Amino acid sequence: MATPSPTDNQSRKLLGRLSLPERRFVADALRAETVGGVVLLVAAVTALIWANTPGLAESYLKVRDFHIGPESLGLNLSIQHWAADGLLAIFFFVAGIELKRELVAGDLRDPKAAALPVIAAICGMAAPAAVYVLVNQLGGGSMDGWAVPTATDIAFALAVLAVIGTSLPSALRAFLLTLAVVDDLFAIMIIAVFFTNEIDFLALGGALVGLALFWFMLRRGVRGWYIYVPLALVIWGLMYNSGVHATIAGVAMGLMLRCTRRDNEEYSPGEHIEHLVRPVSAGLAVPLFALFSAGVLLSDEAIAQVFSRPETLGVVLGLVVGKTVGIFAGTWLAARFTKAELNEDLAWPDVLAVASLAGIGFTVSLLIGELAFKGDLVLTDEIKAAVLLGSLIAAICACVLLKLRDRTYKALTADEDRDEDLDGIPDIYEENNPAYHLRMAKIYEEKAAEHRRRAEAAAGSGTGPSRPASSD
């Protein structure tokens, strides 16, 4: 299989047709994300039920706050802490591989193709932060949570798509996926820069030495999980004790993997490892994080508090309004100043629907909420409730917008998947191939001949249409 190439931009189309290798990669990636998103959705609902059911709420708190781990290594952490700092490192490891692949073999490889998702992602993070700051400036709230509504949860967004059964065309799905990858990159930078307080330079130096050794062994072609897994755990532990958020270690290791294919390679090492680790991330790490982070009290008073406190209101409006306006405006600006035209099969309401879908901020938003208000447990829970409610409202808005265009999406998707010559390549990619037209002519000729044979057989048996009587 050839190495995936960036989308062809000669047509200067926004959200135009993907190259065939890129389309296949996006389909596989989104299929895995969708399954993980459904598991994530189940975990979040379980957490809410567990934490809000009388008689069970106390057990939820006991399990969540139970401490385990070696104190001598500075790793005697609560279950919730292990999920946030430990398991999410696996999630960010996969995110690092995805980002590396996009940079060296995907759409972000080509500056022209990268412009759209990068501009949209930057605007889609700046606008929610601006909305939060404005609300808290006017309401006299804390500015510490400005980064909470900036993140998009691609798995949760795709879970919503899976639940409502909407079939998005591949161009819109690829846009959503690439947007989320760029969004993850900036979220990682925000966590590293703004949520690192005191740094233990000795531990940080040890983590950097470990990362250098990790990189060196990769370049030397050293193989064996029994070498890399222990080294990764040591790097993670040192990074955690350095004061830099431990998930950064996962991202760094993911970015070091080679994601381009060499001769006679079906998959690059990065793609192979991602294929192995993604089920652990999507099926275990992220759902467990959701289970121990999403369990917040949702009483009438708590919900009312979400819409009355400036911090929580800023999060809700940032996700619902800021994300939608930011991504839509960023996409329009990219179209306006690059003189590119929107794909003729799509319309600007489609971009608006995807922009509202990106307002579902869950995993990273919950993590940033915990980091931003670490010293205030009550406000942390209220921020989490705001993330949940904001994501729910964004999901409902997106569902309404997507359903309005559902018939159009189904027609586009059916046309993209049509393969009448059964050669495994969608016909839309073979329109200019003479061999394809010869095959199709032969297929149509065989179908016509089969139809004639069946008509003659039916007529001979007397079951077919009546014929005029013979003149004999």
Automatic annotation (TrEMBL):
<feature type="transmembrane region" description="Helical">
    <location>
        <begin position="385"/>
        <end position="404"/>
    </location>
</feature>
<dbReference type="GO" id="GO:0005886">
    <property type="term" value="C:plasma membrane"/>
</dbReference>
<dbReference type="InterPro" id="IPR004670">
    <property type="entry name" value="NhaA"/>
</dbReference>
<feature type="transmembrane region" description="Helical">
    <location>
        <begin position="276"/>
        <end position="299"/>
    </location>
</feature>
<feature type="transmembrane region" description="Helical">
    <location>
        <begin position="225"/>
        <end position="256"/>
    </location>
</feature>
<keyword id="KW-0406">Ion transport</keyword>
<keyword id="KW-0739">Sodium transport</keyword>
<dbReference type="GO" id="GO:0015385">
    <property type="term" value="F:sodium:proton antiporter activity"/>
</dbReference>
<feature type="transmembrane region" description="Helical">
    <location>
        <begin position="114"/>
        <end position="134"/>
    </location>
</feature>
<feature type="transmembrane region" description="Helical">
    <location>
        <begin position="353"/>
        <end position="373"/>
    </location>
</feature>
<comment type="similarity">
    <text>Belongs to the NhaA Na(+)/H(+) (TC 2.A.33) antiporter family.</text>
</comment>
<keyword id="KW-1003">Cell membrane</keyword>
<feature type="transmembrane region" description="Helical">
    <location>
        <begin position="201"/>
        <end position="218"/>
    </location>
</feature>
<keyword id="KW-1133">Transmembrane helix</keyword>
<dbReference type="InterPro" id="IPR023171">
    <property type="entry name" value="Na/H_antiporter_dom_sf"/>
</dbReference>
<keyword id="KW-0915">Sodium</keyword>
<comment type="function">
    <text>Na(+)/H(+) antiporter that extrudes sodium in exchange for external protons.</text>
</comment>
<keyword id="KW-0813">Transport</keyword>
<keyword id="KW-0472">Membrane</keyword>
<feature type="region of interest" description="Disordered">
    <location>
        <begin position="451"/>
        <end position="472"/>
    </location>
</feature>
<keyword id="KW-0812">Transmembrane</keyword>
<dbReference type="GO" id="GO:0006885">
    <property type="term" value="P:regulation of pH"/>
</dbReference>
<protein>
    <recommendedName>
        <fullName>Na(+)/H(+) antiporter NhaA</fullName>
    </recommendedName>
</protein>
<feature type="transmembrane region" description="Helical">
    <location>
        <begin position="146"/>
        <end position="168"/>
    </location>
</feature>
<feature type="transmembrane region" description="Helical">
    <location>
        <begin position="175"/>
        <end position="195"/>
    </location>
</feature>
<dbReference type="Pfam" id="PF06965">
    <property type="entry name" value="Na_H_antiport_1"/>
</dbReference>
<feature type="transmembrane region" description="Helical">
    <location>
        <begin position="311"/>
        <end position="333"/>
    </location>
</feature>
<keyword id="KW-0050">Antiport</keyword>
<feature type="transmembrane region" description="Helical">
    <location>
        <begin position="34"/>
        <end position="53"/>
    </location>
</feature>
